[in-house]
Amino acid sequence: xxxxxxxxxxxxxxxxxxxxxxxxxxxxxxxxxxxxxxxxxxxxxxxxxxxxxxxxxxxxxxxxxxxxxxxxxxxxxxxxxxxxxxxxxxxxxxxxxxxxxxxxxxxxxxxxxxxxxxxxxxxxxxxxxxxxxxxxxxxxxxxxxxxxxxxxxxxxxxxxxxxxxxxxxxxxxxxxxxxxxxxxxxxxxxxxxxxxxxxxxxxxxxxxxxxxxxxxxxxxxxxxxxxxxxxxxxxxxxxxxxxxxxxxxxxxxxxxxxxxxxxxxxxxxxxxxxxxxxxxxxxxxxxxxxxxxxxxx
Length: 297
Description:
Strand content: under 5%
Largest sheet: none
Radius of gyration: 27 Å
Number of strands: 0
Distance between the termini: 30 Å
């Protein structure tokens, strides 16, 4: 299905490759910076503690390792934020092009239907599903290739840094907890995918009602049925609000499970870090490194 929709989108938008290359390059750079910046901060903290002598005013203008690390961290952070903004711009343009191409092809398919089949289509439902479906494809594409895959690369890079700077076992434990976190996120995603069905159906009913009543507004006025129609519309509004509330309440419960697991994740590694620090096998920079990595995930 994904491949079929991708081919359909390329009929109207035949050359998406330049956008894909720019987005991929931006994501690669931000992924590498997200791995390297916490390590630079760790070196900066460790190096600052290694300098025990008192600085004079003229020492402030001498470029030693500590100042170079601080400069590198600041420049790296600035580059990371600039690239993120560029990536956001290009990604939004890319997704909008996909949306537009699928909307165009959807209307093209509608016009190619026989008249009796067209008459069976509800205008409100068709419009909602067309817009929602076209937007969903772009979001799926972006999530799979530009969120999940970079996160996997980021986790592997973090594990490599932790294994090199602390020890292999610590990096392995971090990898196991990270995999569990990702699997929990995917489990929540698949578990909650049907939660939106009832809310979407109630939204379709709203759109169906609006289009139907706008088309028959003259008859409603002539028959003095405005109060009756508004009363019916109010019931549908309340139904939609109730379905939305129930949907998001269920999702929040699952998200709290994830937050609780990440809290456990953070506590376990902070406790382990305290133990290693007491054993003189951990530095203050290592504390900064591991806490930054966990929170970024």
